[in-house]
C-alpha cells in the first residue's frame, strides 16, 4: 500500500525508526558532505555521459564535473543548505513581521519540507527554503512590493502630513 508522496508504508516506517537512532556522528557525517559530494558527482558525470559525453564539449564538461575541485565545492552543499534553513527558521521565530506573516512562512516551509522529503535531508532543507522564498515573494507582491516597515513609515508620514507637521 502506498503512503504519502509515493513512499511505501514500509519505507516510511523504516525512516521513522531511524529518526530516533540518529546521533551526533550521523549529523556531522551529513554536514561534512562527503557522502553527498561523491554521490552527486557520480550522478552528474553519469548524466553528462548519457547526454553527450563523447562530444568535444561534453568531454571537457565531464572531466570538469569529475574534478576534485567540484567534489570539494559539492561538500559545502549540505552544511550551507542547513545553515540557510536555520536562518529562515530564525526569521520566522524572531522576525518583526506580523503573526499572520510568520504563520504563512511557517506553513510554506512545512509544505516545502514535506514535498522535499523525497530527496532526503537535503531535499527537506531545500524544500523548506524554497517554501519560505515563495511565501516571502507572495507577501511582497500582494503587499504592493513594500515591507511592513515601509508601510508603517508611509502611514506615519501621511498622518504627519494631515496634521500639517510635514
In a nutshell, what does this entry contain?
With 166 residues, the protein is mainly alpha-helical.
Give structural notes:
The chain is mostly helical and 166 residues long. It has 8 helices and no strands. It has helices spanning 9-19, 24-32, 34-50, 56-65, 68-94, 99-115, 120-142, 148-162. Helix 5 packs across helix 7 (120-142).
What topology emerges from the helices and strands here?
Elements: H1 9-19, H2 24-32, H3 34-50, H4 56-65, H5 68-94, H6 99-115, H7 120-142, H8 148-162
Structural class: mainly alpha
What is the global morphology? elongated
Low-confidence stretches: none
In terms of DSSP E residues, the strand content is under 5%
Features:
166 residues; mainly alpha; 8 helices; 0% strand
Amino acid at each position: 500500500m502506498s503512503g504519502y508522496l509515493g513512499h511505501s508504508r514500509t519505507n516510511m516506517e523504516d525512516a521513522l525508526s531511524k529518526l530516533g537512532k540518529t546521533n551526533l556522528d550521523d549529523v556531522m557525517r551529513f554536514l561534512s558532505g562527503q557522502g553527498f559530494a561523491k554521490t552527486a558527482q557520480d550522478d552528474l558525470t553519469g548524466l553528462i555521459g548519457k547526454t553527450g559525453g563523447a562530444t568535444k564539449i561534453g568531454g571537457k564538461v565531464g572531466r570538469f564535473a569529475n574534478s576534485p575541485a567540484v567534489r570539494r565545492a559539492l561538500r559545502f552543499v549540505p552544511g550551507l543548505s542547513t545553515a540557510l534553513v536555520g536562518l529562515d527558521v530564525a526569521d520566522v521565530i524572531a522576525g518583526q513581521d506580523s503573526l499572520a506573516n510568520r504563520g504563512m512562512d511557517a506553513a510554506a516551509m512545512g509544505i516545502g519540507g514535506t514535498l522535499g522529503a523525497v530527496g532526503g535531508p537535503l531535499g527537506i532543507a531545500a524544500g523548506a527554503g524554497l517554501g519560505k522564498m515563495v511565501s516571502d515573494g507572495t507577501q511582497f507582491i500582494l503587499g504592493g512590493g513594500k515591507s511592513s516597515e515601509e508601510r508603517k513609515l508611509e502611514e506615519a508620514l501621511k498622518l504627519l502630513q494631515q496634521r500639517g507637521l510635514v
